[in-house]
Amino acid sequence: MRKLTYFIGATIDGYIAAPDGDFDFFMPHVTEDYLPHLIAEYAETLPTPGRAALGIPDAPNTRFDTVLMGRSTYAPGLAAGLTSPYAHLRQIVLSRSLTASPDQAVEVTNEDPLPLVRKLKQEDGLGIWLCGGADLAGQLLPEIDELIVKQYPIVAGSGIPLFRADFSPRAFKLTDSHVFEGGNLVLTYAKTSD
């Protein structure tokens, strides 16, 4: 069975973006020792234009072949004219407000996320990457098998949290960690049995 992984950048205090959705404040903290790790381990999570700029446009997908995004996660690229940000993956945008896809390579759906993910998990293929955002992650929390947090050495104070959901504690076990010179961490957690 395929696995759903929430792979996301966050501040020390657990925010994935500023209150207005901006996440550019993370960029100065992508250090020389950190970027090669992301390229080597998570190349498919880099946007297609970024992969081309880094000289790895045809890097094989080794972890994921599908990406799920909420409308707010998809919006910044769309506003910049990037209608297919992850052309090397199957792209699914879950939205109640976007009714048609601006690109034939992007599936837009207003389906209930839980049954959709359960169906996707039954299909053959690599893992499913939950790219964001907080509302979608909150809805999909029962189906998240793995959580990979790229923690940046920043305290934001407020913003968009990792999850936006009702109080419902769920246990995860730390299975891997990497510490980088600039203070960045990559923390991998696996869901424990409920």
Automatic annotation (TrEMBL):
Coiled coil: none annotated. Residues 2-183 form the Bacterial bifunctional deaminase-reductase C-terminal domain. InterPro entries: DHFR-like_dom_sf, RibDG_C, Riboflavin_Biosynth_HTPR. It holds the Pfam family RibD_C. This is Dihydrofolate reductase family protein. The lineage of its organism: Bacteria, Bacillati, Actinomycetota, Actinomycetes, Kitasatosporales.
